[in-house]
Amino acid sequence: AQIEIELPPGVDGAEGLALVRRQSGVVEAQELLRGRGWVAANGAVREVEIVGYSARLPRSFPGADAGLAGVVVGSGLAARLGLRPGERLDLVSARPTLSPLGPIPRQLSLAIAGVFRSGRTERVDRIAVPIAEAARLLPGAVPRIEVVASDLDAALDLADTLRAALPPGARVLTWQDLNRPLLALRLERAVMFAGVFLIVVVAALALVADLALVQSAKWREVGALAAMGATGRDLGRAFTLLGGMLAGLGSVAGGGVGA
Fold this sequence. Notes:
Strand order of the largest sheet: 2-3-9-4-8-5
Radius of gyration: 32 Å
Number of helices: 8
Largest sheet: 6 strands, mixed, barrel
Order of helices and strands: EHEEEHEEEEEHEHEHHHH
Structural class: alpha+beta
């Protein structure tokens, strides 16, 4: 999601949604409900995150048919449980109902409308459910408002506008806040660059040290060449050629091993 809004307690969700939709730059806004539960089908049970949506399938469920409405499960979950569109599954909430006989699990039998393909490994499988069914499974869950802007940069500007327009206590989370671990890759890239740079510096110093050892070990040959008429430039060119050969062979060998 580009922007998600958590309304403070006491603020009606419908009023908050209407206030958000009136803001300039909002392309789409709808209520979401989130909670944990389990999917039971074909004798297997899997933990899932239940996402209830009110208008259309959220953009965080990509790869599904356009205009699809109903229960949508991930392709990985569908493959593991042997689910196909049109079949039914049992969705059990983590919030039971209290009764004189004790807690009774909230359970719904729902038909699958379609499958989405996120293209990434899901830490917890997600399932999209119409918000009416999600509200029955997740009583007391605080709804969020998902907002879509024209693009990611516009979403950051729109978030500042929403923070000023919404009541105090409302939390406006941008795509940067929701994907903080991914943004940490930028720091990782900088650290990797610094590490490789230091490796190259150490390798260059090692090459210089090797040439210095060769020069000290071959001082008799160097003196003989100088006595035979070799100039300082000739001797420098010889050591430069030797250094180039060592660096070239090392680069080729390292590249081959790396590949």
